[in-house]
Design a protein that fits this description.
globular, binds adenosine-5'-diphosphate, 22 strands, 493 residues, Nucleotidyltransferase, domain 5, five-stranded mixed β-sheet, seven-stranded mixed β-sheet, alpha/beta, 15 helices
Length: 493
């Protein structure tokens, strides 16, 4: 068995997997979101740690007689914090990936013409989302931190590093290639922390962790009631791609949680996007490196929560499937869920949510239908961007999308996704692919699995969903959506 720590944005979890990738046990604990000012989002580092330990101990206690071969860690990416190298005391809360406090700093750097260089080296955009500007903020705003950092007394790390450092009682200060590739300080070509980037963001190299393969040995857990080897570390979206067997160039996956993240493997080729997708390291296992293009949608399952919690339309989120079924496929009601702007490939920070095409007999059922369908329509736009980038780079994108996350429990949505994207959908056998990926890597790290071929038996072709919508209906829906989208973006200007 393998123990996975899945440290996410709103909860920490521990999962126990058997050798065939099946979940044996799971425990989850939500933790506090801290919003000190508008646009600021923080987490308490000790709560991240204590919730993680609580989850692990609960699983260990309930499964005392089970032999655990090793531990895998997957985590929310980009979120960063600083702590004292000697005492382990954090200097400030963790600054979360959603935090926008460095917007002005990033736009000043953009004005200085630095985005191109940063994009070339990191594959990322110059945006507050990534860790680098958040570390700069800490260095500027925490009294005495710069001097301490210069003298080698500070650790800056993403959540994986914070957990590993604590679990090993300070033995290991390390991260893996996938997490490093989201800091905007890591050169994805040379595979090193980059001196020019460190200069731009004014961050001392000696405060950054050592970067290791995802399946390297990261030390032993001395903080848990059992001493276990940590042999798998990987960022959450890369982990879900791994858990869904996206190993070959052209493999593409989409995770439908609160938001949606699409990743397409580009093999060992670094592809720069013409469509404002991000380039990232998908995994590095021993000497085998895979890159990926990535795009995200801000609102996916979040819309279903909004229907339930804000509008009170749904008793349970799962009711949305039956309700959407009752609506005619050619309904003209369109919801553009730009509640906090639009992500890839539209990238409009200002766009806001809008509802179009209502008539006298429009009711809540049509709204539920339009909400679910908007997730399919956004995915279709995103797939279009991936197709273009793959085509421009002479690469083939598979015509089969692998899906996981909470929303895939909705059968109507899965079929609608296949119909709108006109794509074959391969539903993951578990909605917990993210945790599974880290367990698989932990198994590789401890030598239990000898290579990627060992995972073939995990998957079956049973869960394939093929498109069946009339093409005229599909085209009309997409046409209405494009018009509504344009108006939503225009209106915000
Ligand atoms: P996260 O990790 O972002 O919290 P999860 O993968 O746990 O996300 O998925 C939770 C999301 O999935 C919620 O936004 C919820 O509304 C949505 N969801 C769960 N079940 C269903 C369902 N049957 N139909 C539609 N959406 C669902």
């Amino acid at each position: 068995m393998f123990l996975t720590i899945d440290q996410g944005t709103t909860s920490s979890r521990a999962l126990l997997f058997d050798e065939k990738g099946q979940i044996i046990d799971l425990f989850q604990r939500d933790f506090k979101q801290i919003y000190p000012e508008e646009g600021w989002v923080e987490h308490d580092p000790f709560e991240i740690l204590s919730s993680t330990i609580l989850c692990c101990e609960t699983i260990l206690n309930k499964n005392k007689n089970i032999e655990i071969k090793s531990v895998g860690i997957t985590n929310q990416r980009e979120t960063v914090l600083a702590w004292d190298k000697k005492t382990g005391k954090p200097f400030y809360n963790a600054i979360v990936w959603q935090d926008r406090r460095t917007s002005k700093y990033c736009s000043d750097l953009k004005k200085d013409g630095l985005e191109k260089e940063i994009n070339k080296k990191t594959g990322l955009l110059l945006d507050p989302y990534f860790s680098s500007s958040k570390i700069s903020w800490l260095l500027k705003n925490i009294s005495g931190l710069r001097d301490l950092a210069k003298n080698g007394h500070v650790c800056f790390g993403t959540i994986d590093s914070w957990l590993i450092w604590n679990l090993t009682k300070g033995d290991t200060f390390a991260t893996d290639f996938t997490n490093a590739s989201r800091t905007s300080l890591f050169n994805i070509e040379t595979l090193r922390w980059d001196d020019d980037l460190l200069n731009i963001f004014d961050i001392p190299l000696n405060s950054l962790p050592e970067v290791r393969n995802s399946n390297d040995y990261f030390g032993e857990t001395k903080l848990l009631s059992k001493n276990l080897k940590i042999t798998g570390v990987i960022g959450d979206q890369q982990s879900s791609a791994f858990g869904q067997s996206c190993y070959q160039s052209g493999d593409i996956k989409s995770t439908y949680g609160t938001g949606c993240f699409v990743l397409a493997n580009t093999g060992n080729k670094i592809v720069y996007s013409n469509k404002r997708l991000l380039t990232t390291i998908s995994y590095k296992i021993n000497e085998d490196i895979s890159y990926a293009l990535e795009g995200s949608i801000f609102m996916a399952g979040g819309i279903v929560n909004w229907l339930k919690l804000n509008l009170g339309i749904l008793d349970k989120v799962s009711d949305s499937s039956k309700i959407a079924c009752s609506v005619k496929p050619d309904s003209k009601v369109v919801l553009v869920p730009a509640f906090s702007g639009l992500g890839a490939p539209h990238w409009s920070a200002e766009a806001r949510g809008s509802l179009f095409g209502m008539t006298q007999d429009t009711g809540v059922n049509e709204l539920v239908h339009a909400s679910l369908q908007s997730v399919s329509l956004q995915t279709n736009d995103l797939i279009g961007a991936f197709q273009k980038d793959f085509f421009d780079n002479n690469l083939n994108l598979l015509a089969s999308l692998k899906i996981d996350g909470g929303m895939i429990q909705n059968d109507w949505f899965n079929q609608n996704l296949a119909d709108i994207c006109n794509y074959e959908i391969q539903k993951s056998f578990t909605k917990e692919s993210t945790a599974l990926g880290a367990a698989m890597i932990a198994g590789l790290g401890v030598g239990f699995y000898s290579g990627l071929d060992d995972f073939k038996g995990f998957y079956s072709d049973n869960d394939k969903i093929t498109p069946r919508m009339d093409s005229m209906v599909r085209e009309k829906i997409i046409d209405n959506w494009s018009k509504a989208l344009k108006l939503s973006i225009e209106m915000a200007k």
